Amino acid sequence: MTSDGIVVEPMDAAAALAAVEAFTLVYAEVFAEPPYDEDAADVAAAFERFPTQTRRPGFAAALARTGTGEPVGMAFGHALTPETAWWDELTVPVPEAMRREDGERTFALMEFAVREAWRGRGVAQRLHTALLAQVRAERVLLNVHQEAAPAMRAYRSWGYERVGEAKAWGVGDLHDVMILTLRPDGG
Fold first, then answer.
1. Which CATH number fits domain 7-181: 3.10.310.20, 3.40.50.620, 3.40.630.30, 1.25.40.390?
2. What is the mean pLDDT of residues 1-16?
3. Residue 4: which pLDDT band, with cuts at 50, 70 and 90?
4. pTM summary value
5. How do residues 129-147 score in pLDDT, each as one tens digit?
6. CA separation for the pair 51, 20 (Å, rounded)
7. Domain layout of the chain by residue ranges
8. Cα separation values, 79 from 104, 112, 127, 149, 165, Å
9. What are the CA-CA distances from residue 138 to residues 8, 51, 96, 100, 104 (Å)?
C-alpha cells in the first residue's frame, strides 16, 4: 500500500474474473463520461466479452483499490493473434512489417480507466506499470479516443507513439492507434 492508501494488484485471468464487479464499476463510471458517453447497454456488452478476453493468450490485468477495497482504476489486455483484425481497422494501412503478429509480439491494451475522484494521484501510472510488469511482448498497442485529451497526454508521457487512426470494429468515433515499444530488438 502506498501513502495514499491505494493498492494496485496485478491479476491473472482467474483473479480478474473473480473481480469482474470491480472492473465493471470502474468501466461504467469512467466510460459514461464524455467523449465516450456509454450507457448501461454498452457496459453490458463490454462485460459480455470479458470472460472471452480473459481466456485469450497473454491476458493480464491490474486493479487499483482503496485500503477498504473500493475499486478506483483498472486495466487489462491480451496478446494479439496472427488472425487479429486490429490492423485492418486503420484508415491508412501501415507497412506489413508493423502488422505482423505471431501471438506474442503485441500486447493489446483493451481497457484502461481511473475513476474521476482518484485522478491526478499517480494511480494511472501505477496501474500501467503493474500491468506491463506482466507483459512479455515486444510492444503494447492501444486505441485512444481522439477527444480524450487527458488519456492521450498520459499515453504520450509514457512513451506511446501514434501510428495511425481507426474506428473500432469499423464504427463510431475515430481513435488514435498508439504503440509503446517495450523491447526494440524484439527480444
1. 3.40.630.30
2. 88
3. confident
4. 0.94
5. 999 999 999 999 999 999 9
6. 9
7. 7-181
8. 6, 16, 18, 26, 20
9. 23, 25, 16, 12, 8
